[in-house]
Amino acid sequence: MDEQVKKSRKKRNPREHANLFTVLTFLYTFPLFLLGNTRDINESDLYETYTGHKASILGKQSQILWQEELDNANTQKRKPSLLKVLVKILGWDFLLIGIAVGFENFIAQPCKALFLGGLIGHYAKKDCSGFPSYLYSLGIIVSTLFCCLIGQPYLMASYHMGLKMRVVCSSLIYNKILKLSPSSLRKSTPGYIINLLSGDINAFERVGFLLHMLWVCPLQAVLFLYLVWTKMGVASTFGIGFMVMFIPVYVLLGSILKKYRLKVSTRRDERIRLTNELIQGINVIKMYAWEKPFAEIISTFRKLEVDSMKKSTYLKGLFTFNEILIATSIFITIISSVLLNDAFEATAVFITMNLFFSLGLTVTTFFPLSIAVLAEFRVSLKRISAFLQSQEIDFHTKSEDSESAVAITSGFAKWDEDGNRNTLTDINIHIKKKSLTALIGA
Q1: Are 16 and 50 in contact (CB under 8 A)?
Q2: What distance in Å separates the CA atoms of residue 144 and residue 139, rounded to the nearest whole number?
Q3: Please, are residues 282 and 334 in contact by the beta-carbon 8 Å criterion?
Q4: Structurally, how many domains does the chain consist of?
Q5: Is residue 380 included in any domain, yes or no?
Q6: Is residue 14 located within the same domain as residue 156?
Q7: Does a structural domain hold residue 428?
Q8: Which stretches are transmembrane (predicted)?
Q9: Which CATH number does the domain housing residue 361 bear?
């Protein structure tokens, strides 16, 4: 037995002892790539779970914090917030990712554009020595290197954060399942729980990075507008104004997308619940040859679900007009400058194009995605939080000195939690130890 345990024990995860340089450059993954280049990777080659991702650690921590949140909510007479639990566990991770995102978008990218403009402007002069060009070139290289060394690691960190959120919520859901009351189990079908674990939790994957775009985009637009203004003058407001004009449109689309996302989840839950009930009663359905009528019912629910999914996908497709929007904004800026008889140089055009492409990627790609992800995140958080607040089994302490094996005093019960009347009322029963007791009748 010990030999089997030793054989099944995986190698230590190299991320555990990786230094800052190997983390930024992902060099700790290089041995695995070398191994994959020589032969196919099998299960024994995989590493053990990274300590920061283990459910035994995150699950225990989240369970303690969630219980504290429930107690505080009962004391303050408010609804418990799952978001507060996630912030307590992953707040620092989210803050560090935000610092890295801000450094790249507010320092590295503008500096790269300004160094490029300075290099072009230097060669446009009649008397151009080599030393300033070396400095501008070095600035372009360093700023680009910073974008690479910061951009990819914080994207990886955001996915790590999303994975931690999935582990936390999965652990809370699992522990909740073990304590659900019979009435809650009737509502929470296996299909509904699987939908929470597979569909809703997947919305957390990109939250760590994309939610920062909600504050980066407006501030970056103001900063880049100032930089372009210094080069192109009043004409810059027309181009950036055209780009920013689509932000309210994307916000509106995001709110509509949230409604369709909720419809998709609700209709999927209803379809899965109905399918589960049909499978449980398949013998009766087969006996009376009711396959076709019930198949049509399930097909109707499926069509409603697919219809909501189609509309949601169409809305997401509207978020992909980034290249057209960027090119149009640059065109409007240059044409406006020509019509206003403003003199501009090639340096200003190159700086404007570089800044517009950086801003356009944020405004037309990341910002709309962040709105869509925020909508899905709020819906998923609401559904998971509602499940975690389901009624639990009422555990009572049992006295060892009691003469009765089972004792019920003034008991009541109902099978439907939402029902107004109890099914059983004023039940009193005391069953002695080592006695045979039978309930007769229905």
Answers
A1: yes
A2: 8
A3: no
A4: 2
A5: yes
A6: no
A7: no
A8: 20-36, 85-103, 134-156, 209-229, 235-257, 318-340, 346-375
A9: 1.20.1560.10
Contact partners, residue 5, CB within 8 Å, separation at least 6: none
Domain of residue 352: give its range.
Answer: 82-388
**Residues 26 and 95 grouped into a single domain:** no
Residues of the chain with pLDDT under 70: 1-8, 126-129, 319-320, 322-323, 343-344, 394-402, 415-419, 441-442
One domain for residues 201 and 319 = yes
The span from the CA of 179 to the CA of 186, in Å, is 13
**For 223-261, what is each residue's pLDDT tens digit?**
888 888 888 878 888 888 887 787 777 777 777 877 777
Whether residues 186 and 43 fall in one domain? no
**Length, in residues, of the chain:** 442
Clarify whether residues 152 and 38 are in a common domain. no
Please indicate, yes or no, whether residues 28 and 93 belong to a single structural domain of this protein.
Answer: no
Boundary-marking domain end, from 358, 388, 418? 388
- Same domain? For 160 and 224 the reply is yes
What pLDDT is recorded for position 395? 62
Distances (CA, A) of 132 to 49, 139, 154, 175: 50, 11, 33, 64
Collect all residues with Cβ–Cβ distance below 8 Å to 78 and sequence separation of at least 6: none
Lookup result for tokens 């990777």:
41
pTM of the model: 0.73
Residue 102 lies in a domain: yes
Angle at 78 between CA 74 and CA 82, to 5 degrees: 90
Residue 390 Rama label (left phi>0; alpha psi -120 to 50; beta):
beta
* Whether 161 contacts 91, CB under 8 Å: no
Model confidence pLDDT, tens digit, residues 110-151: 888 888 888 887 777 766 667 778 888 898 899 888 888 888
74 belongs to a structural domain: no
Final residue of a structural domain among 345, 373, 388: 388
